[in-house]
Fold:
Amino acid sequence: MFSIKFFLLCLKAAITHIPQNLIMTGLVLVICVILGTGIALIRAYRVPVVCYIFDFLMAICKVLPANLVLLIVFVIFNDNFKRVAKALNLSITIRDVNKMYVAVAALVICCISGISELIRSGIMSVPKGQYEAGYSVGMTKSQTFFGIIVPQAVRNIIPPLTSTILSLLKTTALVSVIGIEDIMTAAVGEASITYAFLEAYVAAALVFWVLGLVFEVISGLVERRYKKMA
Structure:
């Protein structure tokens, strides 16, 4: 029978770990947007040789399961940390490193292909006539790109980026496979004492739903602002 008392205990445990998931989501998003933008530009404008390398790498990243990548990166980290620390003359041990950063590195590998492709699609969605319009009024290539192309591309990117952020937030629930405590594991950890696993799963689901709703509202506000600026 569903217990409100145990549900509230699990919910409290899950809420205390919201910052952990949000920090991971934010770090992965920022890194993927920065790196993904560079990759997107290389692929969109077909920079010789390099574009084919990134085409291949993005294809690989796109098909790898997130939990598998987390495990592979974690094993590589464990097996090579001492060697790398010694080569860099670092006096830290593997226990001094927050495993959250290992998870962030793995999640970047999982998400960068999708975010880069989204940015590339946004850039390519701007009609070529916009470039010609900029050149016709005496703007340079960089002025045309940053003054005309980027604002239009951003407006096209924002709606699908919301779904990507929500997917990324949900993906952070997989970090438990490498021993990181997050919203999901905190709720389940509380349930392991009371055996109220249904309550724990519902509590974790509620927290993720509320976070997703907040992201949706923020995205809607940003999207409306860009429409007014159009």
